[in-house]
Specification:
Length: 409
């Protein structure tokens, strides 16, 4: 009864929104029941909601590769796992409330009729594509990867699991990869000892949990058994990279070393991004990346030393919109003069770099190539101005000016 009363109020409010949005006569909105009936026709299950709302309005910011705010709406399971949907309770579902208050989507609010459809779908139990009432998947974490050294041959795996709308009824650890020389002491407990790791190399274990609705989720953890006193290699993917459309490609070079051996293997992978990029030479220290689109990507470099120990680092590639033409006068008056001249003028200019004139500034500028221009590089990595880095908008303005031929205007 509580939900029905709330829904009557919701339908009435949305009917009012429709009236003011469309400037319709009152006769076109006979009652909240008419709106409710129309909403039912719009959304009977997840497929309807996905096709009419999620795909066209939400996936740009909330996909597996670009989970804005940690929210992934790629499919029904990830949507329910997010915790933003409470079947039967629209007002308790942050997915719905963020739509009705206009905060999402941030620039193009939904049509009130679609908001009404989502409210109806949630009230009816947030049914999946087959019409089944939605069940939030259990959550599982197998813990952090472990690196051990001989003669150690025992580790403790520490997993965690919970179910946001029920209980976890079953847990099981299994070995997925590695020499079959070991024993999982308590495979049905979240925390268990593993004994018998007697062969050097990599082992992988999977923790599987099942909730009271029968849904099963898994997570994996790696254990590496390394030779005695083998030190981990070190690796750096370098500074984050910024490119501008129409450019859709870049390259990244990793720096890696091993103080007690050598680097035996490089592996580049994509962690996230608005699309799947194409990686060439992913098993070398320099990877070529193609097929980038507007947005932020994260790439991972993993290096393995000659004794099997691994280390990794992450780097962002930010693809910005095409450059906007900027005048030197604007950039000089709003950035260079107020924020740079204090240190870079006259005979005592810091680093010998004087910024009093266009010609002097151009000594660290490569026209149409901000990423090769010392001026932009030192602003981009926050080296300059020291202790008071420029804002993203200010960095973008300098980059745009350089990438549009750095005119003296």
């Amino acid at each position: 009864m509580r939900i029905k009363t709330k829904m009557t109020l919701i339908f009435s409010l949305v009917a009012i929104l429709l009236f003011f949005q469309n400037c319709s006569a009152p006769e076109s909105l006979n009652s909240s029941e008419d709106s409710k009936s129309s909403a039912s026709n719009l959304a009977s299950n997840y497929n309807d909601i996905n096709e009419k709302v999620i795909k066209p309005k939400c996936l740009y910011c909330h996909s597996t590769f670009s989970p804005g705010g940690g929210l992934d709406l790629t499919d029904f399971d990830t949507m329910m796992e997010s915790g933003t949907i409470i079947p039967g309770d629209p007002e308790g579902s942050s997915f719905y409330t963020s739509l009705v208050n206009g905060s999402m989507p941030p620039t193009t609010p939904l049509d009130p009729q679609n908001i009404l459809a989502i409210a109806q779908w949630i009230e009816d139990g947030a049914r999946d594509a087959t019409g089944q009432i939605g069940n939030k998947l259990p959550l599982v974490n197998a813990g952090n990867d472990l690196y051990i050294y001989e003669p150690q041959n025992t580790v403790t795996l520490k997993g965690s699991a919970s179910d946001p709308d029920g209980v976890v009824v079953a847990k099981v650890w299994t070995q997925i990869e590695g020499p079959k020389t070991l024993n999982i002491v308590s495979p049905n407990n979240l925390t268990t000892e593993v004994t018998g790791l007697n062969v050097l190399g990599h082992y992988e274990f999977e923790l599987s949990v099942e909730d009271d609705k029968g849904d099963i989720v898994t997570d994996r953890v790696k254990v590496s058994l390394n030779p005695f006193n083998n030190l981990l290699p070190v690796v750096s993917a370098g500074l984050d990279i910024n490119i501008q459309l129409p450019a859709t490609a870049t390259s990244i070079t990793a720096l890696a070393a091993d103080s007690d051996g050598s680097i035996a293997n490089y592996l580049w992978t994509q962690n996230s991004g608005p699309s799947i990029a194409s990686l060439s030479n992913a098993n070398t220290k320099t990877v070529s990346i193609n097929g980038l689109s507007l947005g932020t990507y994260v790439f991972k470099i993993t290096v393995t030393d000659n004794k099997g120990a691994e280390s990794f680092d992450l780097v962002k590639v930010i693809v910005d919109p095409a450059a906007i033409a900027r005048t030197f006068t604007d950039v000089n008056n709003t950035i260079f003069k107020p924020k740079c001249l204090n240190c870079h003028q006259g005979g005592n200019a810091r680093g010998g770099y004087n910024m009093e004139t266009y010609a002097q500034i151009m000594s660290l500028v490569v026209k149409n190539n901000a990423n090769e221009s010392g001026l932009f590089i030192r602003c981009w990595d926050d080296t300059m101005p020291p202790g008071n880095p420029l804002s993203k908008a200010e960095k973008d303005k300098i980059r745009d000016w350089i990438n549009t031929n750095a005119p003296n205007n």
